[in-house]
Amino acid sequence: MNAPAPVDLSKLKGILGNAMKVMNKVEKKDFSTGHVDGRALNEDGIAQLQNEGITKPQQLGDYTDEQVHKSGLPPEVKKAMLMNRIPKATPNHTFTLENVSDLIEKPMGIPKTPKTNINENVNSDLITISKTELKNIINEQIIEVLTKSYNKTITEDAIKKTITTLIKEGKLTVKKKTL
Predict the structure, then answer these.
(1) b/e sequence 144-178, b meaning 16+ C-beta within 10 Å
(2) Nearest to residue 4, comparing CAs of 158, 148, 156, 165?
(3) Please, which residues have CB within 8 angstroms of residue 46's CB and are 6 or more apart in sequence?
(4) Using CA atoms, how far apart are residues 19 and 12, in angstroms rounded to an integer?
(5) Domain locations along the chain
(6) Long-range contact set of residues 160-168: C-beta below 8 Å, sequence gap at least 24
(7) CA gap 139, 129 in Å, rounded
(8) What angle do CA 70, 74, 79 make, to 5 degrees?
């Protein structure tokens, strides 16, 4: 069996780092964005800003003059963007999952077996069942047991190989127990 391809840990670290920043802000109840006046986050604050004469910048396109000037674009592109405004896009198509329904994978599941007629004897544990029905029941049970075992083994092997690789590469160190 082939081992899974190694994971790029730098991307994972970046994602986890950003997630940690968000979690820390939420735990501290710091809902500021850094570039927005905090008063603009509620109706009273917006009214207060408007009373001070602060208004939303007028935009002909989907950007302001200030954004263009602060961008790292070449001067020729900045000039063209200011002289010939790019209109704000208005989507004319609504997208739903039905548009890609043919791409959605459907779970295979276990094939259903026809209902069995089991003749039970009231005074006994004996039942009457056909050989085909018995084979189907046994096959379903074997598939269930093997699937659980297979998934557990693959997961454990993948974890062991990943940890071993990280230790060999020096990205993970073994911490010795202290008494």
Answers:
(1) eeeeeeeeeeeeeeeeeebeeeeeeeeeeeeeeee
(2) 158
(3) 39, 40
(4) 10
(5) 17-56, 57-87, 112-173
(6) 161/3, 162/6, 162/7, 165/6, 166/9
(7) 15
(8) 80
Residue 48: burial class (beta carbons within 10 Å; 0-12, 13-18, 19+) = middle
pLDDT digits (tens, 9 = 90+) for 111-170: 666 665 555 555 667 788 889 999 999 999 998 888 888 888 888 888 888 888 888 888
The predicted-structure confidence for 85-116, as pLDDT tens digits, reads as follows: 777 766 565 666 676 666 666 666 666 666 65
Whether residue 106 contacts residue 88, with contact meaning beta carbons closer than 8 Å, is answered with no
Determine the Cα–Cα distance for residues 133 and 117; give it in Å rounded to an integer.
9
Beta pairing class for 119-120 and 127-128: antiparallel
CA distance 60 to 84: 10
